[in-house]
């Protein structure tokens, strides 16, 4: 999917979202087994290549079937920039959680903002969601700034919500009505 003209700014790079392919396995394996990101999500165990290969092969990218949609973010040169997840889908209330991971070498260059623009449009017009929310560690300044820039509103602080193996960190809940 391409960025709609009304969301493109001169400082925002163009990105495309696509389904995961078998060629993404090595990168997905590296992300899912990176302990640095375990404390910001709900995962704290390593995944085998077999499990991830099976996930890629069997994911339908139908949020009603899988309960989530995981998409790869690419730049105009078709380089893998990162991935965005829409998960914890609740069909009755038409809401889901959103998260994004961007490769270190592409951070702070506008790719995450462009990907969030894409997933907001996709969530509203394709998934027909009413709202997205994100749960972000209070010390993750880059992610908080990203979601606030995209007009997510802060609504709650979850005390000692995230545990990194040593200490607990509060999390901020950000919400956007689509």
From TrEMBL:
Key words of the record: Transferase
User: Which parts of the sequence belong to the N-acetyltransferase domain?
Assistant: 15-178
- Keyword Transferase among record annotations: yes
Record-linked InterPro entries: Acyl_CoA_acyltransferase, GNAT_dom
GO MF: acyltransferase activity, transferring groups other than amino-acyl groups
Looking up PANTHER family in the UniProt record yields: GNAT-FAMILY ACETYLTRANSFERASE, SPERMIDINE N(1)-ACETYLTRANSFERASE
Name it: Acetyltransferase, GNAT family
| Species the sequence originates in | Leyella stercorea DSM 18206
Phylogenetic placement of the source organism? Bacteria, Pseudomonadati, Bacteroidota, Bacteroidia, Bacteroidales
């Amino acid at each position: 999917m391409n960025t709609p003209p009304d969301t493109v700014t001169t400082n925002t790079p163009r990105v495309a979202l696509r389904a995961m392919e078998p060629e993404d396995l090595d990168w997905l394996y590296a992300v899912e087994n990176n302990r640095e990101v375990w404390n910001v999500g709900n995962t704290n165990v390593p995944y085998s290549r077999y499990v991830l290969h099976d996930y890629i092969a069997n994911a339908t990218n139908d949020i009603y079937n899988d309960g989530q949609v995981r998409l790869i973010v690419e730049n105009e040169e078709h380089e893998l920039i990162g991935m965005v997840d829409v998960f914890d889908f609740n069909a009755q209330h038409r809401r889901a959680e959103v998260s994004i991971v961007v490769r270190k070498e592409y951070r702070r260059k506008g790719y995450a903002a462009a990907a969030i623009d894409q997933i907001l449009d996709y969530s509203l017009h394709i998934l027909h969601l009413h709202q997205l929310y994100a749960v972000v560690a209070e010390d993750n300044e880059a992610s908080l700034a990203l979601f606030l820039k995209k007009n997510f509103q802060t609504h709650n602080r979850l005390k000692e919500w995230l545990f990194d193996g040593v200490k607990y960190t509060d999390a901020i809940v950000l919400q956007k009505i689509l």
